[in-house]
Specification:
two-stranded antiparallel sheet; alpha+beta; single chain; HTH_HxlR
Length: 46
């Protein structure tokens, strides 16, 4: 997802190693679609 520009990976040079991920604007733009897909999936379980 990083290569597609959906997330940003930030690596901290510390012990133990730590990495944080955050959404880019493009990743944030996907949230409504992903929520709709999740709701649809839940409705199909019944």
């Amino acid at each position: 997802m990083e290569n597609q520009g959906l997330i940003i990976r930030k690596q901290f040079m510390e012990i133990p190693p730590r990495v944080e991920y955050s959404l880019t604007k493009a990743g944030e733009d996907l949230i409504p679609s992903l929520k709709s897909l999740a709701e649809w999936g839940k409705s199909m379980q019944n």
